Amino acid sequence: MSCEKMETRILAYMDGRLKENERAEAEKHLAGCAACRLRVNEFRAVNDLLDELPAIEPSGAFNARVHALVAAEPQKRSSWLTWLAPSPRIAFVASMLLLATVWVGTRQAPPPPIAAPDLPVVESADYDVISSFAPLSDLSQAPDDDADDSDANSQQQQPQQM
Ligand SMILES: [Zn+2]
Known about the structure:
By secondary structure, the protein is mainly alpha-helical. It contains 9 helices and no strands.
């Protein structure tokens, strides 16, 4: 018998649970192996120590206290409490999902579409609008006009152009 096999049987040997031939093998190994003998002695010492420990019997007062605590424990949660119980975790998961969605959304959002080729088009369009704006052309063509009526403008432009 090897020391490894003896290790697996040492507890059974000490408890007397080995079969007769196994027990004979173990004792034969122990007779020739000081290391396993020492191990068995150590286990025996620990066993003796455990046996010497006084068995602690719970007092009657302790029993009564435990029974009172068990009785005071609510038997069943009311329905709305049971319903509410998993909600903090669900709310947490939902908020984390929402945060992740927002984060991914902001992260994948394309940059503001300021395309360089678009800008000259916008500028020229603005210029066209301004240059073709009728009141401005009227102002430039008749800057020092004293006329107060708008319908007189067209009539007063003609003398200046002539
Ligand atoms: Zn051995």
